[in-house]
């Protein structure tokens, strides 16, 4: 029972965590149009493996081609490789990255390599969607674990077919970043919401004491650049980014039935409803006082006579006012030790009845 109470307390904390969204920085809610990240990809070779490489024909041919560039004429059929692996290298080029900057890259085995532990990535060009080279990567791999032993004595920690090269990618050329469009800056909301967009526009207008910002869509706020910030758009971005606004969120409950996890927002309401689940009775009434008690429940009756007895299980009753949130329900269910999976069943029943004022997502 103690475990269930702790678990449900955690759920209650999660349900209240959405309240922390009040006062979120604009830079954490939006991204600037034209200043997005860009995905890069490349094909490379990892060497220096301890007999855990692959024997794929493409790997052998790639090694032969590489040696040929160094003036060594090698027939791919004559190569016997054990310490080399062919890999796919991926990276994300952040906005405003400049030539000479460094980024992390991810290295993934795609053939039959057993492990990338201890390997070195050879110089690998990474291209964008336009097939232009933007980053060149090379360096020692870090898998954050190990894979040792053979046969019944194997020991492995973490996934050793994927690794990272920290600061292993050097930016060769910067992407063109144009975040101003006709003397305007467009802010794109990561989670589109009409009220949040309006709140952002209002706070920006308060900051500059000018009607510069307008919420044109639930996902976009357009801000005109005033003359005094012409050529100083970075300063304007910094000022706007630090503004804090109230971020509105959609009422939603997410349930993972496999783990018994329930996560909910603060705005989840509940209409008038009555539910009976096992020996638990939940009633939401227009004029009922918010109560969590067993005193109002039917007391167990017991009759004795002739050596035989009977008893009635005590019913736990929860009374809530109309307009209560699901957070109140969680708090009360926690106080009487309701199991997590029972709570999930209760939420599902409330949703089917139409009394749950939120979307229910079951994973």
Model description:
By secondary structure, the chain is of the alpha+beta class. It has seven helices and 25 strands. The chain folds into three domains: 23-34 and 178-246, Gyrase A, domain 2 (2-Layer Sandwich), CATH 3.30.1360; 38-171, no CATH class; 251-295 and 314-362, no CATH class. The radius of gyration is 30 Å and the shape is flat.
Core attributes:
alpha+beta; Gyrase A, domain 2; 3 domains; six-stranded antiparallel barrel; four-stranded antiparallel sheet; 7 helices; 36% strand; flat; disordered N terminus
Explain the layout of strands and helices.
Blueprint: H1 2-17, E1 22-25, H2 26-29, E2 30-32, E3 38-47, H3 57-69, E4 85-93, E5 102-109, E6 120-127, E7 133-140, E8 146-148, E9 155-157, E10 162-171, E11 184-189, H4 194-208, E12 213-217, E13 220-224, H5 233-241, E14 244-246, E15 252-256, E16 261-264, E17 269-270, E18 273-277, E19 280-285, E20 291-293, E21 302-305, E22 308-311, E23 316-321, H6 326-335, H7 340-353, E24 356-357, E25 359-362
Parallel strand pairs: 15-25, 19-23
Antiparallel strand pairs: 1-14, 2-11, 3-4, 3-6, 4-5, 5-10, 6-7, 7-10, 8-9, 11-13, 12-13, 15-16, 17-24, 18-19, 20-23, 21-22
Helix pairs in contact: 1-6
């Amino acid at each position: 029972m103690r475990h269930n109470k702790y678990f449900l307390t955690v759920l209650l904390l999660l349900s209240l965590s959405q309240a922390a969204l009040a006062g979120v920085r604009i830079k954490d809610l939006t991204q600037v149009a034209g200043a997005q990240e860009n995905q890069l990809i490349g094909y490379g070779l990892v060497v220096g493996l301890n007999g855990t490489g692959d024997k794929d024909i493409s790997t052998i041919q790639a090694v032969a081609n590489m040696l040929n560039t160094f003036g060594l004429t090698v027939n791919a059929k004559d190569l016997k490789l054990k310490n080399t692996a062919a890999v796919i290298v991926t990276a994300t080029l952040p906005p405003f990255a400049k030539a000479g900057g460094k980024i992390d890259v991810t290295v993934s085995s795609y053939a039959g390599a057993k492990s990338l532990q201890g390997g070195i990535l050879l110089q690998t060009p990474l291209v964008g969607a336009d097939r232009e080279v933007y980053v060149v990567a090379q360096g020692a791999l870090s898998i954050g674990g190990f894979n040792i032993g053979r046969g019944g004595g194997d020991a492995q920690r973490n996934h050793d077919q994927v690794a990272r090269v920290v600061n292993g990618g050097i930016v060769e050329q910067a992407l063109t970043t144009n975040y101003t469009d006709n003397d305007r800056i467009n802010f794109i909301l990561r989670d589109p919401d009409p009220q949040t967009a309006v709140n952002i526009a209002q706070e920006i207008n308060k900051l500059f004491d000018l009607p510069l910002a307008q919420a044109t869509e639930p996902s976009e706020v357009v801000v005109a650049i005033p003359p005094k910030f012409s050529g100083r758009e970075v300063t304007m971005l910094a000022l706007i980014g630090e503004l804090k606004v109230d971020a509105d969120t959609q009422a939603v409950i997410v349930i993972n039935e496999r783990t018994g996890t329930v996560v909910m927002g603060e705005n989840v309401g509940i209409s008038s409803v009555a539910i009976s689940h096992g020996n638990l009775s939940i009633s939401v009434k227009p004029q009922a006082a918010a109560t969590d008690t067993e005193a109002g429940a039917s007391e167990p009756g017991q009759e004795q006579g002739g050596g035989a007895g009977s008893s009635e299980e005590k019913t736990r009753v929860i009374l809530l006012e109309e307009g209560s949130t699901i957070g109140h329900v969680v708090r009360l269910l926690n106080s009487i030790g309701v199991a997590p999976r029972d709570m999930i069943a209760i939420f599902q029943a409330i949703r089917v009845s139409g009394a749950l004022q939120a979307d229910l997502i079951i994973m």
